[in-house]
Amino acid sequence: MEWRHKDLLDVTQLSKEEVQHVFETATYFQEINSRPVKKVPTLKGHSVVLFFAEPSTRTKTSFDMAGKRLSCDTFSLAKSSSSLTKGETLKDTALTLQAMNPDGIVLRHWASGAAQFLAERLDCSIINAGDGRHAHPTQALLDGFTLYQEWGSLEGKTVLILGDIAHSRVARSNLTLLNKMGAKVRFCGPRTLLPPYIKNWDAEVYTDINEACKGVDAVMCLRLQLERQQDGLLPDLREYSNYFGLGHKQIELANPDVKIMHPGPMNRGVEINSELADCEASLVLDQVASGVATRMALLYLYLTRKK
Amino acid sequence: MSHPELVIRKAVWKGEEVDLLVADGKILDVIPSSDAMYEGAEVVAARGLLLMPSFTDVHTHLREPGFEYKEDIASGLKAAVHGGFSNIMCMANTDPVNDNAVVTDEMLRRAKTAFPEGGPRLFPIGALTKGLAGEELSPMHEMAEAGCAAFSNDGLPIKNSELFRRAMEYGSDTGKPIIDHCEDPYLAPAVGVNEGEVSSVLGLGAQPDVAEAAQVARDLLMAEYLDMHIHLAHISCRKSVDLIAWAKKRRVKVTAETCPHYLLLTEEALHGYNSDTKVNPPLRTADDVEALLAGIKDGTIDMFATDHAPHAAHEKEVEFMNAPCGISGLDSALSLTWSLVADGKITFETFVRMWTTAPCETFDLPLNSFKKGDPADFFLFDPSDEWVLNSKNMHSKGKNTPFRGQTLKGRVISHFLSGKKIV
Ligand SMILES: [Zn+2]
Q1: Do B203 and A169 touch (CB under 8 A)?
Q2: Given Cys at both, which of A150, B35, B287, B345 links B340, Cβ 3.0 to 4.6 Å?
Q3: Looking at the predicted structure, is the pLDDT value of residue B295 above 60?
Q4: In this structure, what are the phi and psi dihedrals at residue A190, rounded to the nearest 5 degrees?
């Protein structure tokens, strides 16, 4: 398949066939990752800037490792460690990055639309590693890939996404991806953490976790930002974990082969019972491994596309 | 009959071809077109262009003093005359805030300096509270005397309803209207984006239409209780239109304005994160547009206003959530609202009334109605002239408009103020 996209801003840009192609490419790289020598020369001579205006050790490390395993030079620009912080605008940042002439930029930014902002102004590929509350396409692709590896196909499966949907780019991107690949999506959380107009989204919406868990094939827990209590959206964490945290009782209501996922880092005992995070059904560590393979696939597809 | 000094020949007014005669900067007469000779008069051939009384904009931000890099009074007034406006009311959110007569005087002095030979008239709007802080009343009598035409905390509406009541009471004694920017700040933690489908897809903080309508309701109840007039700025949604219609039926003294962008754009324009679509109140839905148009038709919405809010390019070219709200409107408002006439959405009479008689009567401003003795403020308008709105042909310093690059129809060909050609 010839890759036709310059940038990865959102999973909405990708067709079902293209997502499938990412999965297949990632399968190939997953195999490389299980070899004793995990480095291939595929992207030798290419350079990628990892620009994280919002901190995320996990995603950044994952991209860094993905790049290095493909022999791609990766350069990190953290917001705090660069001159790109002190009052510099995103436009100036864009021009600075352009001047470095990289083949790609992996961008994590706190503002929704930041990846599109850069993509419209730069010639190199922009890979959105999370922008504000908008999108997190690589997380959705790695989550989808993790389930694809388990199930072979997502067709007809039901996935529950649990927690702070309103503020979550992971929820938005996963909804799009899972729907695209033929799965049904349920959302569950307190009303204050569900976005307005969620009724128009292609998902079943629950505020009762027990109802939501009935018969599902996978549960994706989202990380709860602990300051939601101060935002006036929650009374306290104890009540939250009692009524909206994933526990043993809920898992028993799900399909017997249910899978448990979490994009990390987890607040153990808040959004997820600590034992469940480590149990047989948990795919949390598989997600981390899939993350590297998926990001290798994406770097490969975007950097070697026909220009 | 005194002798005309200026004759506009063969202009079209209310479907008739007319000659307009001006003497001493005032309308002398409007008569059926003829080839009569007027000795000593300057004769301008209008060649069938539409004759319009100059427009009035009751809601602009001219940024001076304090933010001259966005706009100054001279550049704002220049954009105004090119856009067809002769009366401009400007909001108080300058630096220093227009909350005392010294600032009002200075604004008026700068308007005069910009057009020493006579030009568009500036009517500053004084702040309701000192520093727009919503804590202490401004010296409104002093500002009214200095030339403020109205009072408003636009942009920073008063949170405290008790203080708002007192501001209305005290302000009403000056005889000048009170204008409210309707937004419950507690219901609107984020601005510039409508809470709706688009905001949820784009992942942007947003405010619901309830934030506007709740405060509209408060203001209407207050105006009824106090039996005082209130003018509601930039109405953007159906809920507000419904409430205003309800109040008008109860004979509450309320007038309301809406802006061209609320009639021509919806929240869909936000896809792509173009910060020029970020405006407060935000662009709403197709249903809201429909309600506003119906409200214009049945008289619930009284007038147009631009809410001209110029910003510098570097301020808008940032992350959407960090961009300031506002659309630069004076250059394009006439053409944009003319498109509503051209598309049969509003009548020609409504179009003229909403930009002239309605604002002038509400705010007691000079009005040209082509009667003998009226100020000779008028322009010639070519309704078929097509032009592309771009940074170069905008006279405002603020180029921030989502209509940039669009082909607009209808343009001011020449503009006369007190009988003098300005454009
Ligand atoms: Zn306002």
Answers
A1: yes
A2: B345
A3: yes
A4: -65, 150
Number of residues that this document lists for chain A: 307
**Residue B269 predicted with pLDDT over 60:** yes
- Put simply, the answer to whether A133 touches B203 (Cβ < 8 Å) is yes
Show the DSSP H helices in A125-247 as ranges: 137-151, 169-180, 209-213, 237-244
CA B138 – CA B129 distance, rounded (Å): 5
Distance (Å) from CA B153 to ligand 1 centroid = 8
Average model confidence (pLDDT) across chain B = 96
Which residue of B276, B320, B322 is the best one to mutate when testing the A interface, meaning the one whose CB has the most A CBs within 10 A? B320
Instruction: Report the candidate in A266, A67, A297, A82 with the shortest Cα–Cα distance to residue A163.
Output: A266
Band (A86; pLDDT cuts 50, 70, 90): low
- Chain-chain contact of B202 with A113 (C-beta, under 8 angstroms): yes
Which chain B residue lies closest to A170 (C-alpha atoms)?
B203
Res A83 pLDDT > 60? no
Per-residue pLDDT for A96 more than 90? no
Q: Is B317 on the interface with A (CB under 8 A)?
A: yes
**pLDDT score recorded for residue A190:** 96
Q: Tokens 């002769």 map to which residue?
A: B86
pLDDT at A95: 87
CA distance B62 to chain A (A): 25
The CA distance from A199 to the nearest CA of chain B, in Å, is: 10
Our answer to whether residue B209 is catalytic in this structure is: no
Structure confidence by residue, pLDDT tens digits, B192-209: 999 999 999 999 999 999
Residue B260 vs residue A79, higher pLDDT: B260
State chain A's mean pLDDT as an integer: 93
A197/B322 touch (CB, cutoff 8 Å), yes or no: no
Q: Collect all residues of chain B within an 8 Å Cβ-Cβ radius of residue A197.
A: 195-197, 199-200
B386 burial (CB, 10 Å; 0-12 / 13-18 / 19+) is exposed
The CA-CA-CA angle for residues B228, B234, B238, to 5°, reads: 95
Cα–Cα distance, A160 to A166 (Å, whole number) = 15
SS3 A57: helix
Q: What is the identity of the amino acid at B54?
A: S
Question: Do the Cβ atoms of A126 and A118 come closer than 8 Å?
Answer: yes
